[in-house]
């Protein structure tokens, strides 16, 4: 069965151009003209991925993204005419997985959709990899997908969780930037180091006692990142 995509955009041109292109690529495309309609169709259609415009009337893309993340981990790609970093960062902070700046190349959009769908359906890590990190302050339980700090649950976006899982599974080892990017975002993202730096910052803010002096997620300058080794193995 083909993947179901929810396209939320108030532009008739985008609805026609992108919707027709994706249907020709074999996807089932559900259309919504604004965030409010998109949220209704999310509940009824249960799409595999959302394409979400930012600048819309009534409920804009940022607020729509926030509300989607309250009820679903469905992958989200933001479609925006705004290319400034602060707008991209805001979308990612709301829980979006990726963004494409208008005007965009349809082949690039197709590649990003494929990467996110593939990532969402990948198998879980091998049984030989570590499943639990617990040093009394931070607990990362990959088996149960639970993260706590001092016993309190930590709310992570799907991308934040994938990045943390990738680091924990190789705790104590230096993981190069490109390897992390390809593992967490997909093979098309090997050079997108700004993605990685942004999400490492998010994780540090949520997990570290002092994000400016990280204890768990350590920077190996010019190379990549290393998660502190498991208790007793340091």
Which helices and strands occur, and which strands form pairs?
Elements: E1 4-8, H1 12-24, E2 28-32, H2 35-45, E3 49-53, H3 61-71, E4 76-80, H4 85-93, E5 98-101, H5 106-121, E6 132-134, E7 138-141, E8 146-149, E9 152-153, H6 158-169, E10 174-176, H7 177-184, H8 193-207, E11 217-220, E12 224-227
Parallel strand pairs: 1-2, 1-3, 3-4, 4-5
Antiparallel strand pairs: 6-7, 7-8, 8-9, 10-12, 11-12
Helix pairs in contact: 2-3, 6-8
End-to-end C-alpha gap: 47 Å
**Unreliable residue stretches:** 123-128
CATH-defined architecture of the largest domain: 3-Layer(aba) Sandwich
| Biggest sheet architecture | 5 strands, parallel
Number of domains: 2
The total of helices stands at: 8
CATH class of the largest domain: Alpha Beta
The number of strands is 12
Helical residues, percent: 40-55%
> Which of globular, elongated, flat, extended, rod-shaped describes the shape?
elongated
Beta-strand content: 15-25%
Q: What is the name of the CATH topology of the largest domain?
A: Rossmann fold
Overall description:
This protein has two domains: 4-121, Response regulator (Rossmann fold), CATH 3.40.50; 132-227, Winged helix-like DNA-binding domain superfamily/Winged helix DNA-binding domain (Arc Repressor Mutant, subunit A, Orthogonal Bundle), CATH 1.10.10. Helices cover 41% and strands 21% of the residues. The protein has helices at 12-24, 35-45, 61-71, 85-93, 106-121, 158-169, 177-184, 193-207, and strands at 4-8, 28-32, 49-53, 76-80, 98-101, 132-134, 138-141, 146-149, 152-153, 174-176, 217-220, 224-227. Strand 6 and strand 7 form a beta hairpin. Helix 2 packs parallel to helix 3 (61-71) and helix 6 packs across helix 8 (193-207). The termini are far apart.
